[in-house]
Amino acid sequence: MTTVESLSDKLFKELDKASSLKQLEEMRVAALGKKGAITDLLKNMASLSLEEKKTYGQQVNALKENFATALEEKKKALEAKELEAKLQSERVDVSLPTVGKPEGKIHPVYQVLEEMLAIFNQMGFKLAEGPDIEDDFHCFEALNFPKNHPARQMQATFFMDGEEDLVLRTHTSPVQIRTMENIKPPIKIVAPGRTYRCDYDMTHSPMFHQIEGLIIDKTTNMGHLKGCLVEFAKAFFNVEDIPVRFRPSFFPFTEPSAEMDIGCSRENGEFKIEAGKGWMEVLGCGMVHPNVLKNCGLDPDEYQGFAFGCGIDRFAMLKYGIPDLRTFFEADVRWIQNYGFGALDVPNMIRGFAAGVQK
Ligand code: PHE
Questions:
Q1: Which of 44, 120, 148, 314 is the most exposed place for a label (fewest CB within 10 A)?
Q2: Residue spans of alpha helices (H) in 18-163
Q3: In 3D, which of 253, 288, 117 has the Cα closest to residue 191?
Q4: Residue 162 scores a pLDDT above 90
Q5: Strands (E), 137-289
Q6: C-beta 111 within 6 A of ligand 1
Q7: CA separation for the pair 75, 7 (Å, rounded)
């Protein structure tokens, strides 16, 4: 007859030897299952006296509990061991050099976008976004373009077929409105994205990229605007005495308004930053118009600030010497092999942006 002691001895010996989770599960069923060995012990009860039954029952129950606990502990230990073995077998030496040369390239527009964001981020600007398909209110009305105002014509808008109120955004300025509608000043954001205008030549493409900047608080003035953009240009081009000029301009949503140009030359198919040759317009800017603040529920007697909108593609042309904007979007593999960037060439302020920069 199997006694509690002999079964206990046998079970714990087996448990000691078990080396896999599968074995443990089989042992659990064989010992603790409905027809298991421990349950079986209770059959011996029939021949015992009442007093004996009591102690015997207690012994069987104690064995049941002890064995269940021991099983659980062994299970945990085996699981930890299996995980450790798995980690060891999947170990990767991250310090090894990569194999071969990655074939894909990052488009200069996206490289430049990352560079610009890194600089603005360093200056304390947060990221904001808005949709490519905009409504008339955000794209024009709230930005102080009254209906039928001639300023709307300058924007060469693509209208959505059959949707009177919807347009492909002609600039990223609608994100100014969306931001002021949603967050309270102080506001300090940049909003990059695609923009669309019916235009096509060496420096215009129907789809292009802009990055919008907006600061709203109680004290920011035109001096801050100029300082911010000149410092940005110096950091971006890595040229301390970069030729920059501001020209008075007009935008319905800023007053006063200006445009910033960068001195450059285009000779022998080469495009570079240079003083005294010519100028390329790279951004529009100005102090946010009181009507725009009002349209967003802000009191213009209390709040003020500046906004700017840069053409990302133009910055890319200037920095990397690419003479024709249209080539950006022709999807020519040879072009991207020449002007593209490696996937691991991630721009940041610490490493700097020296690659390919003209001094
Ligand atoms: N949205 C203007 C454009 O695309 C640029 C701009 C932005 C001007 C912000 C002033 C302030 O031409």
A1: 148
A2: 21-32, 37-41, 50-89, 108-122, 136-139
A3: 117
A4: no
A5: 166-168, 187-196, 207-217, 244-251, 254-267, 270-273, 278-288
A6: no
A7: 21
CA 83 to chain centre: 32
Quick check: 192 and 117 in contact, CB under 8 A?
yes
Cα of 286 vs centre of ligand 1, distance in Å, is: 8
Give tens-digit pLDDT for 102-135.
778 999 999 999 999 999 999 999 999 999 999 9
Full 3-state SS string of 150-166? HHHHHHCCCECCCCCCE
Kindly state if the Cβ of 309 falls inside 6 Å of ligand 1.
Answer: yes
352 C-alpha to ligand 1 centroid (Å): 28
Copy the structure tokens of residue 113: 């976008």
67 Cβ inside 6 Å of ligand 1: no
Residue of 32, 47, 69, 50 whose CA lies nearest to 7: 32
- The rounded radius of gyration (Å) of the Cα atoms in the chain is 36
Share of the chain above pLDDT 70, in %: 97
Give residue 327 CA to ligand 1 midpoint distance, Å.
24
- CA 45/CA 333 separation, integer angstroms: 85
Pocket mutation for ligand 1, best pick of 144, 157, 172, 173 (most atoms within 8 Å of C-beta): 173
